[in-house]
Fold each of these.
Amino acid sequence: MQAVPAQATGHYHERPVAPFLRDWFSAVWAHQMPEAEAPPVIVTPDGTIDLQWIDGHFRIAGPDRDPQTETIPAGIAVIGFRFQPAAAATWLGVPATDLLGERLAIETVLGRKGRQLGASIRHQNDLAELITSIEKSIADGARHHSGDHAMRAAFRLIEAGPPADAPLIPWLGRALAMSERTLRRRFDENFGYGPKTLDRILRYQRFQRLSRSSRASMAVLAVEAGYADQAHLVRESRRLTGSTPGQLERILTGASA
């Protein structure tokens, strides 16, 4: 069975996490897979790390530098808690480089604490009640310190879009008052890769947001997102998703028809 973009199958929705988790997590999402046989899904890198609940177990997903193909059983609801930028490494107590491209059971990372994290969660048929129960369990195991605030600021700077005429790393170093060596080390620890990789991923995310809210041509959207031209966008789309923007649009249009 051919793999499809994750958003092309099942039902997906997200909301902000409960207020008591917002130092650590930015959102909670649920992806309900179809009851019929579900195709493998392609997960696109988005610059984030997730704590996920799947069929009664926690796992850590990401960060990703390349598209990942996963097979999720039919009828399963995947519930994901998206870490705030630069928060996951502190919460988990491991550098993000150890998590790069991985899907790891929580006990692999946290040991006994990881096993205890899900011990109080009971299966519930109501998805909203299950999410609430998981939020309370996560809060019980949360730490007080909420991550690397300088790297969170770095994420926001790149997310907004670096100046077109400024080399990325020197510009970030000046903005954050960091040497290049320190900047690269802190990026590896918190994101799993360097500034240029994060810039590439967030630029594509920026293009996707623009394409959902604008009817402008793809060439115009490419430049607005920060690409040199449409050909640059197409190359990066293939690299990050395995498909061109046009191919993805056709797949998603067919899925919603």
Amino acid sequence: MPLARRVINYVNIAHLFDHMFMLIFPTAVLAMEADFGRSYGELLALSVGGFIAFGAGSVPSGWLGDKWSRRNMLGVFFIGIGAAAIFAGSTTSLWMLAVALTLIGLFASIYHPVGTAMLTAHAESLSSEKLGRELGTNGVWGNVGVACAALVTGAIAQFLGWRFAFFIPGLVSIGFGIAYLLMVPDHASPPRKGKPQIKVPRAIAIRAFAVLAVVGVSGGVVFNAATIALPKLFSERMHDLIGTPVGISLLVFVVYLAGAMAQLIIGRLVDRYTLKQIFVAVSFLQAPCLLLAGFTESWWLILPCLGVMFAVFGQVTINDTMVARYTSDEWRARAFSLRYLLSFGASATAVPLIALVYDRGGGFDMLFGVLAVLGLSIFLSALVFPGGSPTEAARDLQPSATSAMRSEVGRA
């Protein structure tokens, strides 16, 4: 197997682990209320530190990946997040649990700036024309992790207890980390292949990243709130139909997995159509589906939830493609770190938002109404995103800027 393909395989596995570990607690918390004698909202609030670390840690992680070693940082991710999960399963007090969840978030922050930069570099070394497909495939792995968090955690918590829901994944991650360090040598990123790209004009890059900033903040809150709230939402509104933790977890798994297919589909589409075309179409789904999810019950609830998951998961691939196309490889880990700082930093507000709305009687109808407003802002941002490819978008600039663009050749 070529080294590039081997690296991509481990990066995909790391993406699965990253999202799975961040969502173990929101499912396990359903089985923890009796042990700690606290309400759902009070226990869920303990994960705020982890989600803050998930975003804030992306900046130093991206810097270390570029300056030290992306390969070694990914090894730290595998082993560190596994050890933090084992610590979480061993906790006996609320403050220890909060510390453990913060450590999980800190180690989880390594993956996106480092792993995505590794993925794009090695994917381009294999085929510069199939970057979108590789990003989409990688996205599916990450969202299978989201789905597995609900299913695996629910099953383990029901049959072995919530502590083993942290222990078992932690040991598996450490095992993969050791295998990864043995099988992947430390070396510089591969050189890029394919046609040289026209340098992106400053005005176009600023416009694209301004849109990305808005979408990163709004999308981060929507993604995190929707994925965290879904197990509890199904537990409340479908309890009479599916009354066991495993049953609820299986249903959440199916919805997440179906939504995860969006990234595979979107990944292939962005190689064929312009980013703006795909961006507008996907973002159009978010607001109405979120609004419907807030007011629907019984089996009908599955339909808007599928639409929400398709939209929020597909948006991730679109955002990553923006960064990959508008930055050069030597800056890519740091560019991804800033993108995820915005997204994950904003997503940390989802936890207190859910806890506040839920514990004060607002219910999920109010919560999903707020998320629908954020979904509308994403759609409006898509409408002003530069059209065409980075170079085609430059044609909308003044002639002098377009002329300067044509005279400079470099990496996008």
Amino acid sequence: MDYSTQALDALERGQIDEFNKIFKAALKSDSDDMLYSLAEELYSLGFSENSKQIYEQLLKKYPDDDGLKINLAELAIDNDDDDKALNLLSEISSNSDEYVRSLLVSADLYQTQGMFEISDQKLIEAQFLAPEEDVIKFALAEFYFNTRSFRKAINIYLELIKEGTLEMSAVNLVERLGVSYAETGKFEQALGYLEQIKPINMSPDVRFELGFTYFSLGEYEKAITEFEELKETDSQYSSLYPYLADAHVELNQFDIALIAIQEGLAVDQYNEEMWRKASEIAAKTGNEELVGEYLQKAHETNPEDISIMSSLSDWYIVNGKHDENIELLKPIAEQSFEDAHLEYNLALSRKANGDIKGAATAFGAAERELGDDTNYLKDAIFFYRENGNRDKELELLNKYLNLLPDDFEMQNMYDEDSEGF
């Protein structure tokens, strides 16, 4: 028995020390073909260093063997030695029989580096040189899928499926096509492919896409079924919970929706968007206290999110929590942060707390953007009226009545206050 076979037998028995001894003997005594096969087997078993030793030994003997260079380049990529991989691949000329394969490996390397344009170029060149090779079509489709260029991926997956190729490298192309259609908003087409996949063969991602597709088509009960099934198999799949909650909302099942989003928060408590959605659902149940609690959590999770700050500020205003609102909006006051809506809210809270000067400053700052907002104008008009600023009151009343000339209450106020002025 040759040493290569003995080495693999030792590995199968778990005798690592024995394997190492036999491996050294194989390097010295076995044929080149036998060593090459051993290197492939060892690589598939995860013994990449031993595989590398063999390829390097063979390359010294056959320095023009481009296949060996590519194998070593792949090993270098696995070890994050991109420079070495690029050097090896650069040695392969366009005249080489291995050139197309080198393009595929180069594409993988550039993709891992985030250089997607170069990766795309390499794959397109490979396809141009070998247009009938399904493995290249598949590589290009996978590249587009993984870089979210789903429309491009769809065309290639369709071509492969029409040719009878339903699976490559353990990837289900029907599944890929269904997901790609869903991601491009073509939900009817997506459903036709996703429903072909047997439930037992569905990955969590695909089950999510099927649930999302049902949801997008307004089939909320079916969406709930899929999301619940996904929750059973992978409760940590946090993306399912907002859609599960929304599906219950669409069916006016607000209490169940609230439970669903609370389950999601238990999985991902650092997701400000989930806290925001929880506040919206809590509002539908009429639990105002919970609305405020969830908005505060959302703001704590991401204090830089202005839209969340704005929602929380609105809640403080509606619920008369003006001290809390003024504290929330300190960045507006201290850093001259420009946001007209928040300036408006700050003005309302300062007014409520009797800070006339501060309220006037905030009303003035908000006016630059909200001068055509009738809600703002009405609040500002009453503020200036109450504080004796007749000029500003009438100026804003005039603006307001140009926007809402049929508001007779405000028209009477204008007539009354402008009389003799």
Amino acid sequence: MKNLASPDLDTANQADAPRALLASQRHTLHFMVVCLFLTAISALNGMHNSTTDSPSTPTQLNLFYAFVIGMEWLWVRFVYKGMRKYRRSIVEFFGRHTLTFKEFGKDVAYATLVFAIDYFCNAGLVGLLQHGAQPANAVLPAVPVGLLAVTLWVCLSLSAGVCEEIVFRGYLQRQLTAITGRLGIAILGQAILFGIGHGYEGIVSVLSIVLNGLVLGILAAWRGNIRAGILMHVAWDILAGFGIVS
């Protein structure tokens, strides 16, 4: 019997990974319930508050960014605790045995390609549904100004890129693959949950983020790790903070 304490998941494709569960199915169910609950709360809050009620003063924004950073890492802690009981490690998602300069170069290339694909797909979707008008972003009501705000935004972007790829493309996608035996269902499932988790941003943003989740899920499956996805995710969020992408 294979020792789950030191699994070898650094394959070229997640479809070839062992179908051993990363955590209990109950843990995954709790994950989904909490995610849907938070989505419902944020969506209801968004319905009763206009964009003018979003944090707008420098102090409010800084506190809000710090709060979101903490929430991102709480998600990772939740995943870590569930996996620890099954003697699995989050490190598996990074493909540590395949990390060489050559492979990192490929990660950068794939991240750049996915960034371009996502940019044009997002522009096309927004243009189709909103005639080019970009949806409001409750998390970024204003461009960060000042050293502290810029630093916090970069830290938030790093946290979101790392944590959300660990949680959705690392844990959830592989766990759903193990549960269902179908990689396609797993990619679609994590993308939908990833998208509706941003329900407070409106339907157009949700659809855009679902599409982004699908692309990142396919990338994670193709590469067998989440490194390229993290690079793309972090770069996108940082540039969005300065209005370069949206």
